Amino acid sequence: MSVLGHDELIKLMSAESLADRLIITPLLNKDQQVSEASIDIRLGNDFVVTRRGNIDKLDAAADVVGEHRYQTKHFVNFKECFYLHPHELVLAGTLEYFRLPTAVAASVTSRSQWGRAGLVIATATAVHPGFAGTITLELLNLGEVPLVLYPGTSVAQIVFYSCVGGTPYAGDMGMRTGAHVPKLSKDRKMTDRRFWLPDKEA
Amino acid sequence: MPGFVTLCPDMPDQAFDTLDYWRRRTHQLREGLLRRIDDLSASDYPEASASYIIEFLLAFFEELGARIDKASSEQELRFISQLIQTSGIFLQWLDNAHTAQTPRALALLLKELMDRMQPQSVVLVVPQAEYNYGINDLGPKLKWYVEEFIPHSRQSRFEKFVNAPLKLVAFPRIERDNLRAHAIFGHELGHPVADDFLDWEALQPEGKNAQAEANAKVAQLVETSLKSRPDLADRALEISVRTLDRVLEIRNRALQELVSDAVGIHIFGPSALFAMHELLWHGDWDLPPQQPQWYPPSRMRLRLMLQVLDEKKSLELLTSCEGSISKKYMADVAAFIQHSRAIAGETTDQSALKSEPDVLIAYEWVAASLPAALKFAAEKSGPVLYDISVAQKHLPELLERIELGIPPNEVGDPLAPETVDVRSPLLASWVYKTKGVDARTGQPLSLKDIDKLNLQTLLAVEYVLLRGKYEQHTAATEVQK
Asked: Using one digit for the tens of pLDDT, what is the confidence trace for A63-91?
């Protein structure tokens, strides 16, 4: 596994066959966004914030509330802003839509200038081969002052790796748009949940 | 004394004053409306139009306070309070115009198309429970508000609002994310064109001749009818006028709808046919015109849309798309078109029209006017014409993108992609959906697949418009440098 550098990224994005191509759309400013070994990605318009008063806890063993009860979606237009307060976690969709060929995996990280301001952009950073969709960023302000976020700002970067023997992603997060919330109790991979988790009344 | 409330010692024995009572009641209504409008200003709207209307309403009802203070009669206050009550409809519109209920792509797409027809349009897009599409002009309403209720000395505050083309666009909520169906809006955008045609035609010699011919036919019809009813002979003039009015209404409504259908085809191309066919399928193809809408028979409308598409060779161009990917889809598209042609090919609607003699006169008049009307529609659609010959070249790659789960928004060199026409994602989406098979699994499209297709179509439209604006911005910045 090796990190793909600028020239490899360009090559991958120019692949003749659409199926083999690394798709990032819209890539509005290619020369600035494609860096030495990563691609800068932008904040989209959709944010999801938690309504703490509507939920006592998130518990994978009990699907006690529907996501709409404790998640509020916000649409922020371009040139408008979203205030991320210290120690607040919000979800935000990327502006760009991605499709990775099956020979490539990726991970999402902060851009250093935003990281130094206290912004963590992802806690679950892996993007699987064959994934298609917008990426949901988990934004967390670890600083002491509110951060003002504008849609279109490049807050994150995505690093790509070659992947040998990868199979196309077929999970729940595929082909989604905007920011989206997983349901812990609906994890399709926990087919053995009855073994690990206690039985709880829904 | 601390801890005690001091009551007013001089409270009058009787404070009730009729005019003052109703004045305060009217102020309460105004305040209530203002607060609810202010609540809505915190909502997320897809673009600036809703905020613009909120700005107007807040300013207007603030100014209305002075008018209430100066009102000198109960009648005047009642008039103002009725205005406030009926203005509550704005709350309903604004409460549904936010992004949780109205797809951003639809609002942006309609704004883009309307701006091409009437620059600087303000477009409030709202879902409605009723299964219907509509575009209404709100400009005259706001203008009336200002002229009727705001003193001349304060009207300049509202100048920018009353002069903007302001449209209220309603779509059926059940179709919220189905942008394909919203190609129907091409028809709605055609209504002003149809009205312009009727105004224009009335001044042309051909239009006057056609009207004279219809008048003669109505006179003949009334004369024949009265032969068997001598008791009505002294009411011949009244019956003639009433019949002529009815013929005129049926004829004008038919032309309004048919011209609008033609404009819809010019704006959205084959997508308008697909969308309208689905819409009309719910009713009777041969239902003759009926009060109060007097819609022409659906079969006639389908026939006319096919005629316009054929004159432009749009369907021929669509189904002759090259490449192996297109070929997978075009047999199904051709089959759908054939299905439409088979419906349009029957003439049962024309037989239905012949059953009522006044309807027949109206539709003979329609037939006489239609060639000029279609020419007029094509000319007036110029700024928003959908060029199928360009779209045809883009379609194979757009379909491939949909197959791979990528929004169909751009084609060509991946490092310098070509943005497609904002309506092409709809057409690609229609073609994919018409085949109805998931390219990844070979199985019929499930409802979940259709949901994903809907989201990708919406996203593609947003991306096309965003890239267009971004490129305009960068080009302008380069010029400044």
From this structure: 665 656 777 889 999 999 999 999 999 99
Among B323, B351, B384, residue at a domain's last position: B384
Structure tokens at A148: 């003002």
Are A26 and B401 a contacting pair at CB < 8 A?
no
Answer yes or no: is B349 within a domain.
yes
Residues of A in contact with B407 (CB under 8 A): 25, 97
Interface contact flag, B470 A28, Cβ < 8 Å: yes
Quick check: A74 and B44 CB within 8 A?
A: yes
Closest in B413, B458, B463 to A25, CB measured: B463
Q: Rounded to an integer, what distance in angstroms lies between the CA atom of residue A128 and that of residue A170?
A: 9
B397 touches chain A (CB under 8 A): yes
Residue-wise pLDDT tens digits, A8-45: 999 999 999 999 999 999 999 999 999 999 999 999 99
- Looking at residue B1, its pLDDT comes to 53
Nearest chain B residue to A9 by CA distance is B415
The answer to whether B69 and B17 are in contact (CB under 8 A) is no
Catalytic option among A8, A16, A138, A201: A138
- Whether A80 is a known active-site residue: answer no
Question: Which tokens is B435 given?
Answer: 């085949």
Q: What DSSP element (H or E) covers B199? A: helix B185-202
Residue A57, pLDDT > 60, answer: yes
Same domain, B378 and B392: no
Q: Considering only CB atoms, which chain A residues are within 8 Å of B48?
A: 77
Look at residue A182 and tell me whether its pLDDT is greater than 70.
Answer: no
- If asked whether residues B121 and B232 sit together in one domain, one would say no
Which of B62, B77, B54 lies closest to B30, judged by CA? B62
All residue ranges of chain B with pLDDT < 50 are none
Where a domain ends, among B320, B355, B384? B384
B18-40 vs B49-70: helix crossing angle, rounded to 10: 170
The mean predicted confidence, pLDDT, of chain A is 87
Distances (CA, A) of B53 to A87, B143, B157, B160, B166: 36, 13, 14, 11, 9
Residue A25 with chain B: CB contacts under 8 Å: 406-407, 409-410, 417, 463
Q: Is the peptide bond before A26 cis (omega within 30 degrees of 0)?
A: yes
Q: What is the CATH number of the domain that holds A146?
A: 2.70.40.10
Same domain, residue pair B257 and B163: no
Contact across the interface for A45 and B104, Cβ inside 8 Å: yes
Q: Which residues of A touch B (CB under 8 A)?
A: 10, 13-15, 18-19, 21, 23, 25-26, 28, 30, 45, 73-77, 97, 99, 132-133, 174-177
**B466 in contact with A at a CB cutoff of 8 Å?**
yes
Contacts of B413 in chain A (CB under 8 A): 14
Dump pLDDT digits (tens) for A97-135: 999 999 999 999 999 889 999 999 876 678 999 999 999
* Band of pLDDT at residue A202, cut at 50, 70 and 90: very low
Range of the domain at B451: 388-480
- Shared-domain flag, residues B326 and B425: no
Per-residue pLDDT of B196-236, as tens digits, reads: 999 999 999 999 999 999 999 999 998 888 888 888 778 88
Looking at the fold, whether B438 and B472 belong to one and the same domain comes out as: yes
How far is B262 from B306, CA to CA, in rounded Å?
Answer: 9
CB within 8 Å: A18 and B466: no
B195 and B64 both lie in a single domain: no
Contact A25 B452 (CB under 8 A): no
How far, in Å, are A110, A132, A140 from residue A42 at the CA level?
Answer: 11, 17, 16
pLDDT over 90, % of chain A:
61
